[in-house]
Amino acid sequence: MLFVVVHLLYLCTIYTAKFASASPVFDQDLALQGKTTNASGGVSIKFFASLERLSRLVDITYCVGTTGIRQPFSCISRCKDFPSLELVTTWNTGVLLGDSCGYVAIDHGTSPITEPRSMPQDTEQSHGATDGAIIVAFRGTYSITNAVVDLSTVPQSYVPYPPSDGDDAYGLPSREPEHVCTNCTVHMGFLLSWQMARETVMPELRRLHEQYPEYRIHVVGHSLGGAVGALAALDMKVIHGWKDIIITTFGEPRIGNVGFVKYLDAAFDLNDEDKNPEQRVYRRVTHVDDPVPLLPLSEWGYRSHAGEFFISKPDLSPTPLHIRACLGDYDPDCIAGSDGEQTKSVNKLGIEAHPPNDRDALSNRIWRLPARFKLWELLFAHRDYFWRLGLCIPGGDPIDWWRDRHSLLGTNNEL
């Protein structure tokens, strides 16, 4: 394991020279430098509580493949926090590049669902009709070695819809896709993980969706699970045509190239800058010191997509004021600024080009080590999303045992 970590450190350092030179990502989005979504930062208490609850739901996935999750919804970790959930199935497909673990659960509406409907015209009607939800949760990588392997493979062409000459593997009739992915490639390991899980996950979801068509589908994932969840949600939306899907990821790595990013942004309507960010149906949560959202490297052709919510506080626990709704695929006030691009921003625009309230924070940030070089944070910041994720033991990670619960939460049952 030590050899693998040292090797990845070497791979990162060989690109240090590029860090000091012009970046195609930076050059492409230089016009965004003067834009921010909320200069003071912060999200609503209601939205913060929703993200916190989803972080606990994804933490439960780390019980799959270890001590397990049992019906109705029982485990030695945080399952007791969700008494209204019913377990449908779990899966564990293997190790390394084929590794995918997770669970499907259902909530029949014993508590209000606070998330917006993906179709605005359906909001009032459907929200009053049912508060049920289907939860699909994907586990992250379980070790540093696994994480390194997951981030080391080559891109693969991505074709997200059935062939035009017949039925696809789901048994669905072919149809014209709403969105077309042009010149798209994705990480081979992420795609393989979803292909392995799809044989178990999609039949259950089709059955549940047919039985409860009015229930919203929540897709949630951490780390590798975030990337797999993204591919899963695209299949649901593009191949199946399901509209009422909300996806939330924590520490999601870069999945594919520029073509794939444009495709995903369009599929989930992430380019609408006039929309309230809390109404997004795709929420990509990142952390200031987490290296994984900056991997695989942009020098290898990978890019980040839009929908980001950025936790600016390095240590636990964040508050609603520490969550920033970010703008576009590349927002220098969010995780992109932790990649070292902020230094070039100051050199090109000058610190005076930024709002006065941001200048002190900017001055401090440009002297910080870029997050993608902080590989030791795979053990810490990469797991620090509202709680320290990744251990299936009573009460979660021991670091949380002496911490107060987030005092701003409404109820445990709100998504």
From TrEMBL:
GO terms for molecular function: hydrolase activity. One of its GO terms (biological process) is lipid metabolic process. Keywords: Hydrolase, Signal. Residues 135-297 form the Fungal lipase-type domain. SUPFAM superfamilies: alpha/beta-Hydrolases. The keyword Hydrolase applies. The keyword rRNA-binding does not apply. It comes from the Eukaryota. Pfam families: Lipase_3. Residues 1-22 form the signal peptide. This is Fungal lipase-type domain-containing protein. It comes from Xylaria arbuscula.
